[in-house]
Amino acid sequence: MTLQAKLIPTPGTPPNVHKDALKVFQILQEGGIAIVPTEVGYGLIASSSEAITRAFHAKTRRPGHTQGIIGNYDVHKALHILPEERFDITKVLTHDLDMSLGIIAPYKSDHPLLQGMSAETLEQTTKDGNMAIHVGGGSLLLEVVRLHYEVGKVVVGSSANVTGKGQKFRVQDIEQKILEAADIVVDYGLQRYHVYWRASILFDFGEMRVVRMGACYELFRERMKRFWGVELEEDLIYPDEDEKGE
């Protein structure tokens, strides 16, 4: 299938999140792979074990290199094991402050949402008893997640690029082998946080430590200190306004 045949919306047609998300959901339910826009670049997502494995190989992932669950606050609350006050923090960040965030924490291995996963997929999405769940990422991604959650399934994904080649913020910049692996490509043009040239923030809420300084880390750091008194290391590349003036 040509790239043109995989593209939605049709060139010249504006995005329709609900319509486009439903098409992605249907493709994923049939065992397909989708390339979708997110705030931190285009992502490669799947929900069946076989498709997740194909996506993993398309990226030339090394053994032991994990992928993440693509979720929302409900998925995070259902699967992660954290004190209630930590869930209060993540809810404020992702709901009230509308932040996209990769949340790492221990997980409930016996939860029904995970029972349809193969052992291989579970191994690819967990490490040392923890699971990373990306919460947020834009309205289309959240709608795809919601549709899956309603039928008791989860979405697995990663950035739409060959491992080590960096985030892709336009479809035309995605490597050919990644485009060929996808069954549907949602092209919404240049994505929001292209100025950072970074993936999402990864924060371990079990140990309260930074795993990756991603896009908008300076906002995350400032908010963690302002609202919860949590001091985190500064980002020397993108310092907050107070540090710029020092």
Automatic annotation (TrEMBL):
<dbReference type="InterPro" id="IPR006070">
    <property type="entry name" value="Sua5-like_dom"/>
</dbReference>
<protein>
    <recommendedName>
        <fullName>Threonylcarbamoyl-AMP synthase</fullName>
    </recommendedName>
</protein>
<feature type="domain" description="YrdC-like">
    <location>
        <begin position="18"/>
        <end position="216"/>
    </location>
</feature>
<dbReference type="Pfam" id="PF01300">
    <property type="entry name" value="Sua5_yciO_yrdC"/>
</dbReference>
<dbReference type="InterPro" id="IPR017945">
    <property type="entry name" value="DHBP_synth_RibB-like_a/b_dom"/>
</dbReference>
<dbReference type="GO" id="GO:0003725">
    <property type="term" value="F:double-stranded RNA binding"/>
</dbReference>
